[in-house]
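Final report, section 2: Outcomes. Of the targets proposed, DUF4806 domain-containing protein is the one most frequently requested by collaborating groups, and we therefore present its record in full.
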Amino acid sequence: MKKVFSNYLAANYSWYGAKKKEKFSQLQICKVIMCAIRRLHDNATDEDISSPIKIWLAHAKERLEKERK
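The predicted structure is given below as tokens.
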């Protein structure tokens, strides 16, 4: 994810668009990431893929603040 999104950009997204953020799950890049992971891992469920992405997005603001120090 860090190769595709900067922490600055990621801090504006959440999976469902909570807290007045944009919905990551509705982006085309999300669909591309999901398909790419499924090609490598046939048995991966939506939850297997989305769970680490949700966590990564949730911590974007913290990472951004660390970068700025």
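The radius of gyration is 13 Å.
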